[in-house]
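[job 4471] stage=fold_predict status=RUNNING
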Amino acid sequence: MGLSSADLREIKGCIISTFNDKFLQDVVSKVAAMVDKQLEEKLKAQDVEIETLKENQNKIIEENMQLRKIIDDQEQHARNLNVRIHGIKVDGENTENLRTKVLEVFTNKLKINLVDSVIKKCHRVSSMGPSDQPPAVLVRFASDTSRSQDRFKFTILNAVLVANKGDLAALVDSEARVMLLYCTKEEAIDILTAASDLHLTGENYVWVVTQSVIETSFQAPYQFPVGMLDSTNRHRSLTTHLSCEGEGAARWDTGDQFFKYLRNVSVEADQGRPNLEFTPDGVLRAAELKIMNLRPGVSKQLVWEEIGVWKSWQKEGLDIKDIVWPGNSHTPPQGVPEKFHLKITFLEEPPYIKLAPPDPVTGKCSMDRGVLCRVASDEAITE
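[job 4471] inference complete, writing structure tokens
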């Protein structure tokens, strides 16, 4: 059977159409595969870039935290160089010698012999209101070392051996505001209870105690006032074959030799620390003390918390955290407040003022509206 020209053209068209459709499908499939591959590669590259950005972000956050810590330390350092003093009266003159007044406050009120060169600058700050009169004086010191113990001379105002409650009465009229207490834990409970009755443990008084008051427990009795400071020693076992345990003898014959040996020993310490050595009088040559602060714990129980470590071999040996001061305050006491002792005296002027002995039984005044009074002796009365 023969095909006409029209049939041949139709068959040709069908073949071409079929070929074109298959070709287009292949092209579309290849293009789609290429696009998918490129998208996948781009997504992988973006994932890598995102991970890199996250790592950089974490590094930036960590660097910011370090910078913030440095800035906080610098701000704390700057604040440590400043002291705000209240109560310095304003002179009527246009210019007042604040430096001289500040030195007088340290010398006469705080009993600290301050060198003039350590004061870098001092000026009055703006008043905060009618209650802030006279305006405070802001003193800036030259450096931290200028406020160290090498530049200060502390004066012991009172030394009291406490045998009973009445012995603490000497501190009531004293200008001392920092109390150093050396005793056992049981003795400290009695002493601080008596001190509280005499109002010597309020927000104006700081008590510094020794490790013997803490003993081995970091929980404190309720009689201890919040804000107490304490120093504790580091313990280290040397594991030697020497012993100084006696057997009841009144005197140890070789004790002097043993003590002499102990004074001359030198035990190698950890890296960065001086060797364990003693001075000729038996005092540790390089001391390291933990500074403890008494503050309320989670359960409101008073606990001793470490706030810093003092190392005697370092120039700036004390790195201290925030302190809870007496009265649950986060600022230290303002210092020695002004004290005024006022005595009221009178002379007997009948019928306005009459003197009579008290009732011998009750010890009270038998007269209406009478009050007990102390009569001065003739020796105490001067013209």
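[job 4471] summary: Residues 145-151 have pLDDT under 50 and may be disordered.
[job 4471] exit 0
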